TrEMBL record:
Nucleotide-binding is among the record's keywords: yes
Protein name: ATP-binding cassette domain-containing protein
Pfam hit, one: ABC_tran
Native organism: Pontibacter qinzhouensis
Keywords for the protein's UniProt record, in alphabetical order: ATP-binding, Nucleotide-binding, Transport
Transmembrane segments: none
An example Gene Ontology molecular-function term: ATP hydrolysis activity
């Protein structure tokens, strides 16, 4: 259970999904998904490999089109947007993907300023430096500003990746397996960072994970994808207090305390 209760505004849905369906040829991946994400909330999406978690995130970010259902993101129906409007909306969504690697030939500073310079061309050097310092301080790595990614640990690279995502001040954060491949202590640090980002920047986040220690540490609410729908939802305890064998085996297989 999370120790610090964040401010969640249940009257403000930043994502509202209804009746979402998506199939690839004959294979129905999402079979009527309903999902709301509230302002300020950390929502964990659980599910076995291949259940459609990434497909869901790709639909939310406009990278894939749904077959049926409504997907509303920050008040906009993503299907009705032009490419230009979609690109603008995407700037309000921060993606922390497993493979969102840093550019190896650039310093930490250059990695961080890259999205800023590309998207806000009229910013002064002073303003760029100010924002870089804020996000680096937020992830606790101010001292690495002139280092190369190869000089950082896996956990530090992950943090810089999150800092790079924060630099455009996203309203929504999407974390795909944020603790994958990290040792247990670094996992704890990344979980703490996800909670810190939520409180400090008042972001609303979807966290996809298999790591139930992470799910319990960061999730205000959890949902579990089973057979193409969210069959379980609630707090960590509520989701796993069930006789459903599918849920029990997911827990037994994935939980290491
Ligand atoms: N572009 C695509 N074309 C065809 N099939 C696809 C495509 N994208 C995803 N799929 C299929 O949809 C299913 C769900 O994939 P998805 O990547 O969303 O799973 P996941 O729950 O994120 O799994 P994992 O935890 O392993 O990442 C898989 O069977 C996958 O093969």
């Amino acid at each position: 259970m999370k120790k610090n209760i964040p401010k969640i505004d249940k009257s403000n849905k930043v994502i509202a999904i209804k009746g979402l369906k998506k199939a690839f040829d004959e294979f129905e991946v999402l079979r009527g998904v309903d999902l709301d994400l509230y302002k300020g909330e950390n929502l964990v999406v659980l599910g076995r490999s291949g259940t459609g978690k990434s497909v869901l995130i790709k639909i939310i970010s406009g990278l894939l089109r749904q077959d049926e259902g409504q997907v509303n993101v920050l008040g906009q129906d993503i299907n009705s947007l032009s490419q230009k409007e979609l690109d603008k909306l995407r700037l309000k969504i921060g993606f922390s993907f497993q493979n969102s690697a840093l550019y190896d030939s650039m310093t930490v500073r250059e990695n961080l300023e890259f999205p800023l310079i590309r998207n806000s061309r009229d910013m002064t050097r002073k303003e760029i430096d100010r924002i870089i310092n804020i996000v680096l301080e937020a992830v606790g790595l101010s001292q690495t500003i002139d280092q190369m990614p190869s000089e950082l640990s896996g956990g530090q690279r992950k943090r810089i990746g999150i800092a790079r995502t924060l630099i455009l001040k996203p309203d929504i954060m999407l974390y795909d397996e944020p603790t994958a491949g990290l040792d247990p202590i670094t996992c704890i640090e990344i979980n703490a960072l996800i909670n810190q980002v939520q409180r400090r920047f008042n972001t609303s986040s979807i966290i996809i994970t298999h790591d139930l220690t992470c799910a319990r540490a960061v999730g205000d609410r959890l949902v579990m994808l089973l057979d193409g729908q969210f069959q379980r939802q609630g707090t960590f305890e509520e989701v796993f207090e069930t006789d459903d064998e599918r849920v029990k085996s997911f827990y037994n297989y994935n939980f290491i305390d």
